[in-house]
Write a structure and sequence with these properties.
The complex is a heterodimer of chains A (210) and B (123).
Chain A (H helix, E strand, L loop, with lengths): L1 H9 L2 H4 L9 H30 L9 H4 L2 H26 L3 H31 L8 H34 L3 H34 L1
Chain B lengths: L20 H23 L8 H20 L9 H31 L3 H8 L1
Helix pairs in contact in B: 1-2
The chains are: A mainly alpha (210), B mainly alpha (123).
């Protein structure tokens, strides 16, 4: 019995507070709140998806989806995001076991893959704008740039957040609050990948065949 | 000592137990297969052309499910109830927004005067 009590005092404050009746541990509350934020973010994307679906055919005599989208570019972007989601997941497994070196390597890969994705998207956008197919050309292009551009903005913010988080791990070590932030970042990054799946199939793959 | 209650004590995204490399790798495999299927279906004539949109939507929804279960670790266990309920509400709103917008706009389009008649009236 005394051994058990000694054990209990050794567990971190967060776990100790997870009693049967007491409040949920901080990391559960934080992650749940972030989950609610992600769902509201997805609802915002749903509104933009609906806008895109409605304005899809309104090209105002300008270029349509079939002429603009490059399917190989989309395939590479998709693979980048998918593998970055994978490396992010693996990295979070290692940091949970306090293994810093594989964590740094995997999150470094996540960053590089995300940056490649972003580079490809910026290249695509600038090519479209240069060829006169900018967001002001038609309702179709306005809704396209709003939807895909918002996803790209999220990826940009995610990359900055990733750098910030990794710097915190380096500076402060894997403390509970750092791990909570990393957990939220993981949720954010996986959610972005889910939104990309919808963009890829509903915007690009349907677009090239429409 | 009673059996330890686990309700509510699992954060969204927490794996059951420790989570494993195998879960993520299996998820990656499924996601890759579904992505490949989407690309093949859209680039070939495997699917009846008018049904292509539905086929792609089904593959996309399947892949989102794979991501939720294998990457975000959203399961159906009792300790996941809050997470799943919030997700269900989110899906409800998303469905309402998307299908409602499409329905209303299609209806408005259907009720629009044909272009020729409109031009005739403007004379």
């Amino acid at each position: 019995m005394t051994a058990q009590v000694a054990d209990a005092s050794a567990v971190p404050e967060e776990v100790a507070r997870a009693g049967d009746d007491g409040p949920a541990p901080v990391r559960v509350v934080v992650a749940y709140g972030f989950w609610i934020f992600l769902l509201s973010d997805i609802i915002m994307f749903a509104a933009l998806f609906a806008t895109y679906a409605v304005l899809n055919g309104q090209t105002a005599g300008g270029p349509s989806a079939r002429h603009l989208f490059d399917i190989r570019n989309v395939a590479i972007e998709t693979l980048c995001l998918l593998f970055s989601s994978y490396t992010c997941g693996l990295g979070s497994l290692f940091i949970a076991r306090r293994r810093l070196r594989p964590f740094y390597v995997l999150f470094g890969m996540t960053f590089v893959l995300g940056a490649i994705f972003l580079g490809l998207e910026i290249h695509e956008f600038s090519g479209m704008v240069a060829s006169g197919a900018g967001p002001s050309r038609s309702a179709f292009l306005s809704s396209f740039f709003a939807l895909v551009g918002l996803h790209g903005t999220h990826v940009t913010i995610g990359l900055l957040w990733l750098l910030f988080n990794v710097a915190q791990v380096a500076a402060k070590g894997p403390r509970p609050f750092v791990l909570r932030r990393l957990h939220c970042f993981g949720l954010f990054w996986h959610a972005l990948d889910i939104i990309w799946v919808a963009v890829m199939s509903l915007v690009y793959l349907m677009g090239v065949r429409a | 000592m009673g059996e330890q209650k686990k309700t509510d004590h699992r954060a969204p995204g927490d794996a059951e137990g420790e989570g494993s490399i195998l879960t993520y790798t299996a998820g990656l495999g499924f996601a890759l297969a579904l992505t490949a299927a989407s690309f093949i279906v859209s680039q070939s004539h495997l699917l009846w052309a008018p049904g292509l949109a539905v086929g792609l939507a089904v593959l996309a929804i399947a892949q989102m499910g794979v991501h939720l279960v294998f990457f975000l670790n959203i399961g159906s266990g009792p300790d996941n109830t809050n997470t799943v309920l919030a997700l269900a509400f989110g899906i409800l709103i998303v469905t309402l927004v998307v299908s409602g917008s499409l329905w209303i706009m299609a209806n408005l389009n259907g009720n629009m005067m044909p272009g020729a008649v409109m031009q005739e009236m403007q004379k």
